[in-house]
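input
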Amino acid sequence: MFTHPLATANDIARILGDVDPLVTARILAIAPSVDELDEAVRATEEEEGFGEEPRTPSSARVANLRAALADLTRTEFETRPSDDR
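output
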């Protein structure tokens, strides 16, 4: 049986960059593998960037990760300074 290592805070930082510690804690609470985290990030980027149809997540953890990433994206968009030009 193959086991996949669980994602660590370092893995999250490597894949997502600098994120709020609360986001990191939320992701760690889901207990995803590195592969699941990577899958969720890629799917989220593809759907947002290319307007692709949502794919069915491969696991409940991936679905939860995608929800957390959607919240993160939404929060970043809402907190961006408005362009007053």
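quick obs: The first helix runs from residue 9 to 16.
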